[in-house]
Specification:
CATH topology: OB fold (Dihydrolipoamide Acetyltransferase, E2P)
Shape: globular
Low-confidence stretches: none
Radius of gyration: 13 Å
Oligomer: single chain
Mean pLDDT: 96
CATH class: Mainly Beta
CATH superfamily: RNA polymerase II/Efflux pump adaptor protein, barrel-sandwich hybrid domain
Strand content: 25-35%
Largest sheet: 6 strands, antiparallel
Number of strands: 9
Structural class: alpha+beta
CATH architecture: Beta Barrel
Length: 124
């Protein structure tokens, strides 16, 4: 299971890369593996505001439908449009081409897990 050390993580299996006041968000390798083959990603709307732990989109796989939760509060300022036509990017490259959106952070960043803490969560 790939868990990059330079990212932060949520208990709901989202990863976060914060650069300045922008958080790029996606799902972890563990999440994409648990979902199985991703067949649909609901690309969120640019300009939508989100609250911490609020569901802002869904990912559908051959096994189930899962909500994706905002790890930070703010405004969605960029989305990965490629996911609309290529949802399998979440399976192939969850930490690269499979990113979901970018959120311009509004307010304090909540406590997120580092790679070691996320690994411990998975070890259970």
């Amino acid at each position: 299971m790939l868990i990059p050390k330079d990212l932060s993580y949520t208990p709901q299996h989202e990863w976060v890369r914060i650069t300045g006041n922008v958080a790029r968000v996606g799902i972890t390798d563990y999440a994409q593996d648990a979902l199985g083959d991703v067949v649909f990603v609901g690309v969120p709307s640019v300009g939508a505001t989100v609250a911490v732990d609020e569901s802002f989109t869904e990912v559908e796989s051959t096994k189930s439908v899962s909500d994706i939760y905002a790890p930070v509060a703010g405004t969605i300022t960029a989305v990965n449009e490629a996911l609309a036509d290529q949802p399998e990017l979440l399976n192939r490259d969850p930490y690269g081409d499979g990113w979901i959106c970018e959120i311009t952070i509004d307010g304090p960043v909540p406590s997120l897990m580092d790679a070691a803490a996320y690994e411990a969560l998975l070890a259970g």
